[in-house]
Amino acid sequence: MSYAMNNNSPIFRVQAFSLSDKGRRPNNEDFVTFFEPPDPEERKVSGCIYIVADGVGGASIGERASKYAAEKVLYEYLKHSEIEPKKRLKQVVAQANQDIFDYAENNGIRMATTMTVAVVLGNSLVAANVGDSRIYLVSGNKTRQITQDHSIVGELVRNGEMTESEAMKSKVKNKITRSVGGNGNVRVDVLGPIPLKPDDKIVL
């Protein structure tokens, strides 16, 4: 998405685009959803919210997990506008996690997804993630990764035990350490607010 703000007023404009490719798999386990409130007052309280979820490869019906989690988080986030955004994001992602975990346990299946959420609120970004789906902020000619990968190689890179190039070639590069629905409890990383400038771009 591209973020732009009118320097003479608090009104901001966001342009968003989405594209999905199932890759070599027979089914697409990715799901994208977003909402840009038309009401200025609602935008002040909840901002514009964008979600990418990627059903965990190898888990049965991962595409159902990603769709449910993304739609659940979007619905619950917008519903509970009385809670400040960072706390709200943590609560609604944790709630989606519990729902999916309980459903999988009750039906004897594996069902999980990664998730990354970006909320553009005024002239700032609030983000949440579980798993290895990333958020990047492109500002001018600089690109930085906002989120941290919850994966085996991600931990090794952060600890200085592996380089980024080694991680890309690792046999365990797709092994995640956290997911939405993988366990009864999940730690949700929530970041921000991160200041945004006119023409900044956010990539999920």
Structure description:
Helix content is 30%, strand content 27%. Helix 2 runs antiparallel to helix 3. The N and C termini lie close together (8 Å). The chain has helices spanning 40-46, 62-79, 85-107, 152-158, 164-169; strands at 2-5, 12-15, 30-35, 48-55, 113-121, 124-130, 136-139, 142-145, 189-195, 201-203. It is built from five helices and ten strands. The longest helix has 23 residues, at 85-107. By secondary structure, it is of the alpha+beta class. The protein is globular and about 45 Å long. The chain has a five-stranded antiparallel beta sheet, with helices on one face. A three-stranded antiparallel beta sheet has the order 8-7-10, with no helix packed on it. Strands 1-2 form a two-stranded antiparallel ribbon. Mean pLDDT is 85; it is low at 5-9.
Would you kindly provide a brief summary of this structure?
The chain has 204 residues and is an alpha+beta fold.
What are its keywords?
single chain; 204 residues; alpha+beta; five-stranded antiparallel β-sheet; three-stranded antiparallel β-sheet; globular
